[in-house]
């Protein structure tokens, strides 16, 4: 299909304010190499508007495959909130009921979904490596993340500070997602500058996952940990086990909701 000129039926989802265009591409009608079309669809002024676009495709060994693009139109690394939204989409399409195993760019994922279809708990990849860069923590939770503790996060210029780190000499070539975190004792507050969106988003799932793991490493917390996180677009929770720098059983939990459907 010519993605520019043919009618396209889409579904708009959001997970804690991280918003996505979802396309049922089981028939492969959408040309997955058409990066320009993806960036136009994600444009907030000339398109539908979103932080990213996902194609739901068939796979012989899984319930479905998630093909994810950032708003710039390029294929992205793993998107945690996108993963939660595509699970809600698969339930809406009646492809799955309360559980699923699907394939994403970083490998297989298991997820559970509420009977109402609006709360998704997505298992993330295990993390065995976490590095320091000065005061910051750097780790890969399916996407690369930089985590820096701050004070007064509500007034921080996340766009300028995040953009500078994302493009610096160390990270500029491949890019990195930059997360700022403030510890409020009973919860963490996180704001993220996202690579591929090249702006602050209202939430980043792999980002809050990275923050929760880095927080456990920084505070020396071990065993089963449940970390509530507030983001600009809502609340998320990350459950995991931490033993001597090995993070397993990681679940990113939060809302995933259909906003509207349309034909463009
Ligand atoms: N919003 C995402 C992160 C998406 C991936 C990222 N922007 C990248 O490709 O670096 C999430 O919820 O994890």
Task: Give a short account of the largest sheet.
Answer: 12 strands, mixed
First-last Cα distance = 14 Å
Shape, please?
globular
In the CATH scheme, the class of the largest domain would be Alpha Beta
Question: Element order, helices and strands?
Answer: EEHEEHEEEEEEHEEEHEEEE
Tally of discrete structural domains: 2
E-strand count: 17
Global Rg: 18 Å
GO molecular function, one term: diaminopimelate epimerase activity
Subunit structure: Homodimer.
Catalytic activity: (2S,6S)-2,6-diaminopimelate = meso-2,6-diaminopimelate
Pfam family, one: DAP_epimerase
Short description:
Homodimer. The chain is built from four helices and 17 strands.
Topology (SSEs and partners):
Blueprint: E1 9-15, E2 18-24, H1 35-42, E3 52-59, E4 62-70, H2 80-92, E5 99-104, E6 107-113, E7 119-123, E8 130-133, E9 136-140, E10 144-149, H3 158-166, E11 177-183, E12 188-194, E13 199-201, H4 205-219, E14 223-231, E15 234-243, E16 246-255, E17 257-263
Parallel strand pairs: 2-3, 10-11, 12-14
Antiparallel strand pairs: 1-2, 1-17, 3-4, 5-6, 6-7, 7-16, 8-9, 9-10, 11-12, 12-13, 14-15, 15-16
Sum up the structure in keywords.
Diaminopimelate Epimerase, Chain A, domain 1; binds ligand LBFN2T5F; twelve-stranded mixed beta sheet; five-stranded mixed beta sheet; alpha+beta; 264 residues; single chain; 17% helix
Characterise this structure.
With 264 residues, the chain is of the alpha+beta class. It has two domains: 9-119 and 257-263, Diaminopimelate Epimerase, Chain A, domain 1; 131-255, Diaminopimelate Epimerase, Chain A, domain 1 (Roll). It is 17% helix and 44% strand. The chain has four helices and 17 strands. The strands form two sheets. Strands 5, 6, 7, 8, 9, 10, 11, 12, 13, 14, 15 and 16 form a twelve-stranded mixed sheet that branches. Strands 4-3-2-1-17 form a five-stranded mixed sheet, with helices on both faces. A hairpin with a 3-residue loop joins β9 (136-140) and β10 (144-149). It is globular. The model has no long low-confidence stretch (mean pLDDT 97). Bound molecules: ligand LBFN2T5F. Ligand LBFN2T5F binds at residues 18, 51, 70, 76-77, 79-82, 143, 177, 194-196, 201, 204-207. Keywords: Amino-acid biosynthesis, Cytoplasm, Isomerase, Lysine biosynthesis. It comes from Pedobacter yulinensis.
């Amino acid at each position: 299909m010519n993605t520019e000129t043919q009618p396209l039926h889409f579904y708009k989802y959001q997970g804690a304010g991280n918003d996505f265009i979802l396309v049922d591409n089981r028939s492969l009608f959408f040309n997955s190499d058409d990066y320009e079309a993806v960036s136009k669809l994600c444009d907030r002024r000339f398109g539908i508007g979103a932080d990213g676009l996902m194609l739901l495709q068939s796979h012989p060994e899984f319930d479905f495959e998630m093909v994810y693009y950032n708003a710039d139109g390029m294929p992205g690394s793993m998107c945690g909130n996108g993963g939660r939204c595509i699970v809600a989409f698969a339930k809406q399409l009646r492809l799955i009921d309360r559980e699923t195993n699907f394939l994403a760019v970083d490998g297989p994922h298991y997820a559970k979904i509420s009977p109402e279809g609006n709360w998704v708990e997505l298992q993330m990849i295990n993390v065995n490596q976490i590095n320091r860069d000065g005061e910051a923590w750097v780790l890969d939770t399916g996407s690369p993340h930089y985590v820096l503790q701050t004070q007064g996060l509500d007034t921080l210029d996340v766009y300028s500070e995040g953009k500078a780190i994302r493009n610096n000499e160390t990270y500029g070539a491949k890019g990195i997602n930059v997360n700022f975190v403030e510890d409020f004792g009973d919860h963490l507050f996180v704001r993220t500058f996202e690579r591929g969106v090249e702006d602050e988003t209202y939430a980043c799932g792999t980002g809050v996952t990275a923050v929760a793991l880095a927080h456990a490493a920084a505070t020396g917390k071990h065993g089963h940990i449940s970390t509530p996180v507030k983001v600009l677009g809502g609340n998320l929770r990350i459950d995991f086990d931490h033993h001597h720098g090995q993070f397993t059983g990681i679940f990113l939990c939060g809302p995933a909701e259909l906003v509207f459907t349309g034909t463009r």
